[in-house]
Amino acid sequence: MKTFFSRDILIFLLISAVMLGLVARAFHNQIIEADTMREQADDRHERTYRIPAVRGEIYDRNGNLLALSTPMVAVQVDPKKIKQALSDYQQLMALLNLNSSRFMQLVRDNRDKKLSFVGYIESEDLKERINALNLPGVFIKKIAHSFHVGGDTQAPFVTVTDAKLSLWVQESTVSSYLYLFERLGKALGIPPKQIYRAVYADKDRHLYIKRQLTPDYRAKVESLKLPYVFVSNEYKRFYTNGEVNANLIGFTNIDGLGRDGLERAYDSYLQGQDGAKLVIKDVRGNVINTIKASYKQGEGTNDKAYANGGDIQLSIDQNIQYYTYKALMQVMYKHQPKSASAIVLDAKTGEILAMANVPSYHVNRIADRKGSGLRNRAVTDFIEPGSTIKPFIIAKAMDLGLIHKNSEIDTKNGVMILQGKRIKDTSRHGVLTPEGIIQKSSNVGTAKVALMMDKQQQYELYKQLGFERDSGVYFPGEVAKHLKHSDFWQPLDQASMSYGYGFNINLLSLARAYTVFANNGVLKEVSMFTKLNAAQTPVSEEQRVFSPAVAQQVLQMMTHVTKSGGTAVQAHIPGYQVAGKTGTSHKTSQKGGYQQNTYMSMFAGLVPASNPDMIMVVAVDEPSRGDYYGGKVAAPVFKEVMQHALRLRQIPPDILPAEHPHFYEQTPNLFKGQIAQSGSLAASVP
């Protein structure tokens, strides 16, 4: 009897435990997990995400990285959804006759595990109006339940009756809406009011709150589980040499699109092809399922973009580029011009080894991407080439048989009257040979030689040199050339254009023209990319400007410019023959004519002259302190850069040995004493 009684008690207890478990499970499903179930049922939505392609990298000729893209993240929100949800919560609180602080206090004070009891629903109308809002984390139930607040047995005990409908709120969900701006602002370091104003001012479905964030922000933001807040992948462009290359390479905008320089010129190639991923997300932004990853061309099954951008390898030598920029900065400090530009070419191929401009800008600082520092003046700015054009006139006249290397041109007292205008030299030179005209930079001598030609012949020369077309290298903002047709030339025009006045080109066009002296009279097209086997490319006679003999003779004449008595002694590099030509031209006036006290100082040089490896042209705009002559301002820039570049390219010296009878002819006076004492030039080179 006793055993039977004990067994009945045991069965009763087991049945009671099962019933209590079922009741608890029902409460858990109806109340605690109801929010999750409804979100899964009602708030799932499809969303398409862009899979950004990785922009191609930019390298110099030696494989040094110049521009790359680093992974970053962006935080964006859906303003429409956020504003609608917050408006609905405000309506709920208005229906309950509660302000926001009182509402959240009730939520905190009456919390049982995940849910909080807010109050009873006193009417059917109130129930329908609340249900119509369909708010996440808000539930109306008819259930009896008792609990200690927060599950703490020492906390107040709350009893809810099932005699009335009761309103329950999931604090984590509701607070994620009501405190969205505060929590997101704290995570991103942005004032909440700033986010609030941005959201309420925006009418689109996608608003970036902050971009170009380091990848660790993804976990920081996603851990907040804020509704309608999304973290997406993107890339930030970084430039390894900053201002050294800034106005050449340019930059991209925050969306990764090229906006200046080579980044803009070759944007379509560098950019690649973005992909897209279609996913199912819940209201909190969590990915429930990936439907597919698709592409603008075809479809795929993973998250890779259709195609990453192509890499570009430039002909630039970053070391020579650096030395060029550094030398220009030095001339800016010493002579305080408005700006300065320089270009270095491979003399045999036309490849651009350096192209630098100052002032420049810090390309990695977005705030600095403005002002005149953005301009790649070597291609965007006009110059009148001045006396740097004179060797071409001498060469053309020799090629036509009008003069020869020993011809004598009488410049008299350095003044020539033509059509009532004075053409003059800086000093009297009397009778000059073609070599003397180039060495002394005689305007009168050059004008007299030019007037021996038909004006059409001079015009055709300038066309052959490329002065009527662009560089052939696609640089954004490259200026169109201005060369008046010879039909409209007066004798004075022909004369003034022979020494570089009356027509405009850019610095790159001038550099290209000088390739004729390095290639036996053949013009080489310039390129920003390496040319495979360019030196072995068969010569087209259409590119020939002068005969090989004339080109060599004039090249030799230009070596006297950098020797004692020439206008560019400061361009001389110990151990090397340097051929070059200075230019010092008056700047044009906005009122017409020329300004008397503002100058463009220039120098164009080739080294080593015996077999040119490099060509460098330098232009210094309006030097305002110290000298203004090209030989004193621009020529030292040439020397500073070339002595480094020759070492980098391992070009051996070509100067004649000390025992050669013409040794002293190739060396400026300032080196004669040292060399005479040591017996060789090598001993005088530090």
UniProtKB/TrEMBL annotation:
GO terms for biological process: cell wall organization. One of its GO terms (molecular function) is carboxypeptidase activity. Residues 51-291 form the Penicillin-binding protein dimerisation domain. GO terms for cellular component: plasma membrane. It is found in: Membrane. The keyword Electron transport does not apply. Residues 341-643 form the Penicillin-binding protein transpeptidase domain. Keywords: Carboxypeptidase, Hydrolase, Membrane, Protease. Its main location: membrane. It holds the Pfam family PBP_dimer. PANTHER family: PEPTIDOGLYCAN D,D-TRANSPEPTIDASE, PEPTIDOGLYCAN D,D-TRANSPEPTIDASE FTSI. This is Uncharacterized protein. It comes from Thiosulfatimonas sediminis.
